[in-house]
Amino acid sequence: MRLVVQRVTEAAVHIGGVCAGRTGRGLMILIGIEEADTEEDALWLAKKAADMRIFSDEEGKMNLSVKDIGGGALVVSQFTLHASTKKGNRPSFIRAARPNHAVPLYERFKEELAALLEGRVESGEFGADMQISLVNDGPVTIFMDSRNRE
């Protein structure tokens, strides 16, 4: 399971011109799920994202988590995080999980993150054509992969 986590001052996702989810100061999280992923990956990454200290303290040091600042998160599924670009110019998405495997893990990740952030989690719609707008604060962008825990 892969995440792209961005520290934002605001982020929103629109589907068909309608706002499906938004957050103020907090995290914009893109999540890619592959066939080998399990619930353990979802739980580990949710905790890691909630506890990651990427917000500035009173001294300007990245020492606070999204939980510490009372921030929220916007979570959007993105199968393209598992693109393989080894051959040719057209990416392959063969490692991306099919919906019957990915949707329950996507939902479980959101559920766990919402529990950790006291409900301050909104999301897009799995598999939908979405438009995302955000203001990346810093900029701070972190890539996380549950296969790289050590």
TrEMBL record:
Where is this gene product found?
Cytoplasm
UniProt keyword annotation of Cytoplasm present: yes
Q: What is its EC number?
A: 3.1.1.96, 3.1.1.-
Taxonomically, which superkingdom? Answer: Bacteria
Give the UniProt keywords, A-Z: Cytoplasm, Hydrolase, RNA-binding, tRNA-binding
- What does it catalyze? a D-aminoacyl-tRNA + H2O = a tRNA + a D-alpha-amino acid + H(+); glycyl-tRNA(Ala) + H2O = tRNA(Ala) + glycine + H(+)
Cite the InterPro entries for this sequence: Daa-tRNA_deacyls_DTD, DTD-like_sf
Entry coiled-coil feature ranges: none
Q: Does the keyword Oxidoreductase apply?
A: no
- What biological function has been recorded for the protein in this entry? An aminoacyl-tRNA editing enzyme that deacylates mischarged D-aminoacyl-tRNAs. Also deacylates mischarged glycyl-tRNA(Ala), protecting cells against glycine mischarging by AlaRS. Acts via tRNA-based rather than protein-based catalysis; rejects L-amino acids rather than detecting D-amino acids in the active site. By recycling D-aminoacyl-tRNA to D-amino acids and free tRNA molecules, this enzyme counteracts the toxicity associated with the formation of D-aminoacyl-tRNA entities in vivo and helps enforce protein L-homochirality.
What the entry says about domains is: A Gly-cisPro motif from one monomer fits into the active site of the other monomer to allow specific chiral rejection of L-amino acids.
Q: What is this protein called?
A: D-aminoacyl-tRNA deacylase
- Species the sequence originates in: Akkermansia biwaensis
* Gene behind this protein: dtd
